[in-house]
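Q: What would this chain look like folded?
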Amino acid sequence: MSNMITIYSFADVDRSGKVRWAACELGWEIKEERIALGEHKAEEYLELNPYAMVPTAVIDQETWIDSNAICILLAERDPQERLIPANAPERAIFWQSLGLAVSTLELPVVNYFLASRGFVDQGWKDLVEEGITARMRTYAGNLPENGYLCGSFSIADICAGYVLRIAVQAGILVYEGKLANYLDLLRARPAAIESRVFDSLET
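A: My prediction, written as C-alpha cells:
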C-alpha cells in the first residue's frame, strides 16, 4: 500500500480540507485535482463520485467518498499515529465528539454559512438559524479548557476545527475564550498550516 492520496476539491477550505489535514498529519504525499463549480456534475466526475460532491479521494487506485469517512480510513491505515484513540475512555469521547461535529452540526452550519453568502437560498438560514446557533454555542462551551478533545490530537479535532471555523466565519460564534484557545491550538499544528484549512479564517 502506498502513502499517496489524490484529492478532488473545489478549494482549500471546503470539506477536502479535513482530508488534506489528516493526510498531512500522517505525512502522506498529496496530489491535488481542482475542479470548478459545475464540473462536479459532469459525466467524467460522476464516474468517480456519483453523488456529485467533493471531496473525492483516490488511494491505490481505489476511489473513496465522504470527507469524514476518508479521514477515518486514513487514520485506520496508520494506526500507530493514534488519530483514533485506542483506549476505551478516550475512544468513547472520540466517537461522541466526532458524531456531534459531522452529523449533528456540520450540515446546518454549512447551509447557514452558504445562505449567508448568497450561495444557496436564504430560506436555509432561516430554517436552521435558531437550532444551530444554540447547538454551536453549547458545543463551543464544552470545549476543553486546555488541550484536545480526547486528550491527544485526533480526527475528532480535525472535524471539530472545520465546523468551528465555519461557525466563526458565519457569525454564529465569536472568536474568544475557550473557543479561541482551542482553535489557536489547532491552527498552530504544522499539518494544519500545511493543509491551508484555516487560511480563510480572519481573527
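The chain has two domains: 4-81, 88-192.
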